[in-house]
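[job 0412] stage=fold_complex status=start
inputs:
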Amino acid sequence: MTEFEYAPALESTSILNLQSDYNLFINGKYVPAKTGKRFPTINPATGEAIANVAYADLADVNAAVAAARTAYQKVWSKMPAAERGKYLFRIARILQERAREFAVLETLDNGKPIRESRDTDIPLAAAHFFYHAGWADKLDYAGLGANPKAHGVVGQIIPWNFPMLMLAWKVAPALAAGNTVVLKPAETTPLTALLFAEVCQQAGLPAGVVNIVTGDGVTGTHIVSHPGVDKIAFTGSTGVGKAIARAVAATKKSVTLELGGKAANIVYDDAAIDEAVEGIVNGIFFNQGHVCCAGSRLLVQENIQDEVIEKLKRRMALIRVGNPLDKNTDLGAINSAEQLSRITELTSTGDAEGAERWSAPCDLPSKGYWYAPTIFTGVSQTHRIAREEIFGPVLSVLTFRTPAEAIEKANNTPYGLSAGIWSEKGSKVLWTANKLRAGVIWTNTFNKFDPASPFGGYKESGWGREGGRHGLAAYLKGGKN
Amino acid sequence: MSRIDVMKTYKLYINGAFPRSESGRVYGLKDAKGSFIANPCWASRKDLRDAVVAARAAFGGWSNATAYNRGQVLYRIAEVMQGRAAQFADEIVAQEGLTPKQALAQVEEAIDLMVWYAGWTDKISSLAGAANPVSGPFHNFTTPEPIGVVGTFIDAKPSLTSLVGSVAAIIASGNTAVVIASEKFPLTAITFAEVCATSDVPAGVINVLTGKTPELVGWMGSHMDVDAVDASGLNSKQLTELKIAGADNLKRIHSFKSAKSPERILAFVEYKTVWQTVGI
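[job 0412] stage=fold_complex status=done
writing structure:
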């Protein structure tokens, strides 16, 4: 039989206007860090530096917070809400207009497949601004009673897995509710946030309403502990989330946290197996598994385990791993050398603890950071790969016999962010959804996101929601209670 | 010669029973005029842990009870409180130094507050839930669910309305409660426990401890099976201690000014969003 190979279909980077050095965005202007210090941002698909980015120190954070405070007091809080909303509509439109540029830059800086940045990250980011734009003059109906108030200056710290989308999740509701923002993108993925600053300029957003400071975890702690910041919104690891909770314990700062997860993806024996296999693949291999809500624990009913695993392996062998800029690529690069070593270390415990590893046969590029799509079978609940977030393209497979056992195992985790259910029986699906202790539950689908849909976790997966009316409320203060 | 009163032994309330503190400790309580009135139990860390175990065990049944059923159970508490109004009033007079008339007014307010929360149980979801218009073939809905085991530190004054406002709001949505009574004014809390024991509240849904607040703040904060805390009865130093200890399992910690607010109920729910695929 003749096999037809895919020809390379590379997305051009000529749309980008890359600079060798990037500055901070404070008070409406790009400014260098006061120390002049810079750090490189790496293309994880090649391991080569794309550009140098300004490193924000305490003095820069101070300047950003001061700019945000002035903009809040003098401009943003005084502006009619409908006008505020119109700025957000403008931003949404400009993001749509420049979507291709953003997608290419995101893929370059993050390593995710262009198919995902083009079809998921950037369109959803624009949708978040469009959705929240409409809230700006309707805050009385957000569920907190009449005349809810903004917090003031919001410090926002976002992760590297969906850089632009997480920016939109944070900035759009914050501005709609009337806050001003100091945002720190992740150390390894600062570029789309800095391009977003240009969008703010094009939209004519008043200076200081959005400030972007690039840096590392230390920069983040300067934001968290800054007395001029009224509210913290953080997405990242549960460990850092707990540190933030401690750091603000003695203050009146309001905090929302979107943290880790170890989602169960439950496949019952009455599921449509082929659809479920697609869902399992999407659940764990979407975005290289760098997803806090990834379906990283497959719970498959014991009597269909063999069939599901066989079909899953056959499907995984078809996953195209490689150049993220290739439009045919399914699985891109691991975001950083550090993350790759974390995945390697944690999966090695899977081998050591007795689980059976299988990786899809694929040629990994010689340069850059890569990990083949991998599953572990024979995983028990006590294995580290069943309990800890791997944050990579690695699936742990566990089995169950009864629905009650599925629930017991699914809920046996300190996390509670998301879960999946696969069954053709509607009442069983809803029974299962009711019993799962998780904030987002996908039934016969996985990894779906929408600005109208609240997202966030139970237990150690965080505080609060993002998206929908419930997410908006986190950026407002009610008058009573 | 006048009759000698039968004095009451004030005990803890854990899992529907009235044990003494396992520590064997009590602390002498004086009334507003300085005379001895009781030896309430001085609860230990172990008592707190026992109460959490009971509350966790009761959570499954209580959270799965229908909202209508929970509403009737709350209303039943109000009915039994009404029958005990005089006793509550006497305790408030002794503890808080109010006049009998003022004390009775507080009791009546507390009973009405319980009735108010009873009416909330089957309305929370309609108020706080949502059907979300997502772009795609999905029915997407968000519903509030109880968080789990909620601890609460009760404000000293007014002791009974503070207690009812906190506990009723916690259990209305299906949470179970571990109540730390006001250290200064614990008597109404124990009488309230007796009300719970003689109404329809399942064992473990409400547990009441008396003792020294500063001793229990850290243990409540660090207990990994407590999901949330109503910290309304704590001072700012205690609140900070609770928050630092509570970060270990990211406890949801909230304080409230008003005893009567749906915000109290909504603070102790989690929002679950379900994406249900639509298709043929």
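[job 0412] summary: The mean pLDDT of chain B is 96.
[job 0412] exit 0
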